[in-house]
Structures are given as structure tokens and as C-alpha cells.
Amino acid sequence: MPYIPSSRQYSVVTATSRSRGGSEVHCRSDDSPLLFEPLTLEAVPHIRPFLELSKARTCDFSIGGLLMWSEYFNYTYSIYKDTLYIKGVTEDDVTRPAFSLPVGASSLSESLDVLKGYCRSHGCMPLVFSAVPEIYVEQLRSLGAADITMLDDWGDYLYEAQSLATLSGKKLGKKRNHVNRFMLDNPDYLFEPMTSAMVSEVREFYSQIHLPLSKPVLADIEREQVMCVLDNLDRYGFEGAVLSVPGQGIVAFTLGEVIGDTLYTHIEKIDHLVAGAGETVNKLFAEMMIARHPDLRYINREEDVGDPGLRRAKESYHPVAVLSKYNVEMG
């Protein structure tokens, strides 16, 4: 069963905005063993094994969730004693350094000591963790958490993989109807795995149909990063698919990655003028990925970032959980 946030109420304040981080100085103090380096494509082979250890099922512990937003959140990383440390900024104050929960061989208590030493050496006390999955809040509280801040608009929508692949049940009846209508209108449609040979055509499609989010800064960054992923498809290690119809060409494409039992759908772009294209590419991609990864149980379709249209779309598929995240300041 997926982790479903409990009804336990925390004493929290809310934060709703994110901004681009400032410049990063890559240095190491004699008092700290951590050396933070830019989180770029070159880092992927080094950090992927650690991300595969995470049990959180939130997109912040995926290659796409980190790399696509690396510049925006000024992410850097360090590996020490077989443990991955990621540094960025807080969502509500870009002048304030923050860290992801460390992942690896060290215990959380040991990692806290390492990070507190780093923060003391670099003048960034108190230690702050960002985008903490709710399942770790109580553990951090027991280790001395002073303030807990819920991050509005940044909870990940988690779905049963089989549910998205079959669209069975009364709640998803409208989705099934949209898929059936698409297939009836386009009996010769083509759904195929994305390859590097398709990138040029996919880029052209995306440049024509791209519609910005209600938050233009996020939309601009997303557009840039989607193009970057397409240009470096093999290096990201994503799996994707393209939906096309005769005479029109591409009408939708999607890209994601599998970590553990969860598929993270990082990119899904649709021609909304083609009825049912979105529901169809979503369903067929889930089917394809389950066939490729028999142990796949969940699909994470990430946050709605406060966009009303995205929120309605994600809620309409009836997630089994919305994985809340928090900023946690340690005492």
C-alpha cells in the first residue's frame, strides 16, 4: 500500500512561492568534509544509485525532479561516507540555504551532525531541510526539529499504476470514454516508444503546442528543461512514448523514469485540440511501462504548482495519495 498522509495535525505555517536561487560558491572548509559540486548531467551516474535507495516516492528524489530544476533551486551535491547530500535553497527564501534529506549508508542522526558541522563552518545555521516527505517529519521532530513548514502547491499526486493503465471503475468512466472516442476517431493511430531519432519531430511539435502555466517563470524554466531533456535523451535515462495520427503527426508525447516500484512522469505534452489525446497517451504509457517493469505499482505525476488547470486534471484521475512536503528547521 502507498503511504497515505495521516490526519495528524502539525503546527505549521504555509509557504506558496518559489524563486530562482542565487549563485553558489563551491568550496570546502577545513572544518567540514563536504564538498558541494554542481548538479549537472555529469552527476547522474554518481547520484542515481543513491536515489534508488529512497523510499519516499516523491519526485524530489528522482533524476528528473533534481536535474530539471537544478538551476532553479541552485542544487549542488556531495557524496561522503556513501551518503548523498544535496544542497539548494528554501522555497520561500532564496537567500537561505537548505538541504534535501540525505540518502545512503549514514543514519539520519549521523547525517545531521555532518550537515550541522557544514552549516557552522559556512555561516548557514540553523540547518534547514527542504521538501521533506511527511513520512520523515516525526523522525526529524524526535531529532530536534524546531519549525515545520508545509509547502502548499508542491504535494505529489500518486496513483495506482494499474488504475491508470486500465481506467477501470465508475470514477474513471469519463476517461475511458475519452480514450474510446480518440481510438474511434483515429483507428490508425500510432503509439510507439520514443527514440533519439524522433527528437527533432518531437521538438517541433512541442514548440507549436506549448502552453504556459499560470506561473510564467515556472513555465519558461519548464520549457527550457524539456528541450534540454530531448537534446540529451540518452544521458537522462528516461523512457518515453509518442502518440501520432495519420495526416497530422504527433499529438502527444511523454517521458518519465522508474525508481523502485514507482514511475515518475516528468513530462507530458498534448495537443489539446485533439479530443482524447491526453487520456490516451496517459493510459497507453502506463500500459507500456507496466509491461516493461512488472514490479511497477505506482505512478507519480508530480505537483500542480498551484496551477488550477493542472490541479483539476490531476484530481480527475483520483490519486491514492497526495504526498505532502515540508520545510523543517532543526534546533
TrEMBL record:
Pfam family, one: LPG_synthase_C
InterPro entries named among the record's database cross-references: Acyl_CoA_acyltransferase, LPG_synthase_C, UCP018688
Gene3D superfamilies per record: 3.40.630.30
Location of the Phosphatidylglycerol lysyltransferase C-terminal domain: 53-328
PANTHER family from the UniProt entry: DUF2156 DOMAIN-CONTAINING PROTEIN (PTHR41373), PHOSPHATIDYLGLYCEROL LYSYLTRANSFERASE C-TERMINAL DOMAIN-CONTAINING PROTEIN (PTHR41373:SF1)
Name of the protein this chain belongs to: DUF2156 domain-containing protein
Naturally occurring in which organism (per UniProt): Duncaniella freteri
